[in-house]
Design a protein that fits this description.
There is one protein chain. By secondary structure, this protein is α/β, with parallel strands linked by helices. It has two domains: about 180 residues, Rossmann fold (3-Layer(aba) Sandwich), CATH 3.40.50; about 70 residues, Alpha-Beta Complex (Hypothetical Protein Ta0175, Chain: A, domain 2). Helices cover about 35% and strands about 20% of the residues. The chain has nine helices and twelve strands. A nine-stranded mixed β-sheet has the order 1-12-11-10-2-3-4-5-6, with helices on both faces. It has a three-stranded antiparallel β-sheet with strand order 7-9-8, covered by helices on one side. Helix 2 packs parallel to helix 9. The longest helix has 17 residues. The radius of gyration is 18 Å and the shape is globular. The protein binds magnesium ion (MG).
């Protein structure tokens, strides 16, 4: 990882937009602090398109895209898109079904997995945001709970054993039967929403993140940034971000925004 100061002017000026993780990247321990919210507006005013790429529920993004200066959100680690339309939000699912209608087969498999985990590992609780999810489930490993690493690993093995895919952020361990990860979901979103060629979008959109569920984006996109707390996850990242901020979480996001805006001025 290189310091932000080594980012080149041409690379910064060539960007169309910025993709960013939420938890422990824009949000600081779950809170949208002043510096990060100001940075979103500054990036928006500087002409960069903005898309959140998060493990959080699509139900949360339906509110965010109405209220924040962003162009959309790729949620549930790539599976469900939410776009701003006028003053509203539209949900785009990764399969031909109507937003809001559950997929019976998928939900039954996830329900069975949740029941299995509850029976085998009763101390581990579902995340408190599962009601807003359409495609996955998540267990709290670091938000309100502090689950020991060995138990997180055992939970992940159980998810994989059930035939699901798993990924983890700084706060949750996810299970899903959906196809996409954050990188494939983000490039698919950029094609559907902005008509971006997937190969081109990997060079024209930058990504900012902090943890293991950002691994696919750190590997796929050319211009990638970590906030300083990404160092805690480096052992779980096959490809680290190319640039790293000095500050952590929302302050680090604001530092990255200032750097980009100054280089593009
Ligand atoms: Mg994160």
């Amino acid at each position: 990882m290189r310091p932000l100061a080594s980012l080149g002017r041409d690379e910064a000026r060539g960007l169309t937009g910025l993709l960013f993780d939420l938890d422990d990247t824009v949000l600081t321990h779950g809170l949208l602090e002043r510096a990060a919210f100001g940075a979103l507006w500054d990036l928006h005013d500087a002409g960069l398109k903005l898309v959140a790429v998060t493990g959080r529920p699509s139900g949360w993004a339906e509110v965010l895209v109405r209220q924040w200066p962003i162009d959309g959100a790729v949620t549930e680690n790539g599976a469900v898109f939410v776009v701003r339309e006028g003053r509203g939000a539209r949900v785009i699912l990764d399969e031909p079904r109507v937003a809001g209608e559950p997929s019976p087969a998928r939900d039954a498999r996830l329900e069975a997995l949740v029941a299995e985990v509850r029976a085998a590992m009763p101390a581990i609780e579902l995340a408190d945001d599962v009601g807003g999810r359409r495609s996955d489930v998540a267990w709290d490993i670091g938000e309100r709970a502090k689950v020991p690493e060995a138990d997180v690993a055992a939970l992940a093995r159980r998810v994989v054993g059930a035939g699901a895919r798993t990924t983890r952020s700084s706060v949750h361990l996810h299970a899903t039967f959906a196809r996409d990860d954050k990188a494939s979901g983000a490039t698919r979103f950029l094609r559907e929403r902005f008509g971006e060629d997937p190969g081109r979008s990997l060079a024209r959109w930058a990504f900012v993140g902090d943890s293991a569920n950002d691994a696919a984006c750190f590997a796929a996109f050319r211009t990638t940034f970590g906030v300083a707390n990404v160092r805690a996850f480096l052992a779980k990242l096959s490809v680290p971000p190319r640039f790293v901020a000095r500050a952590e979480r929302g302050e680090g996001f604001a530092e990255i925004a200032r750097t980009l805006i100054a280089l593009r001025a």
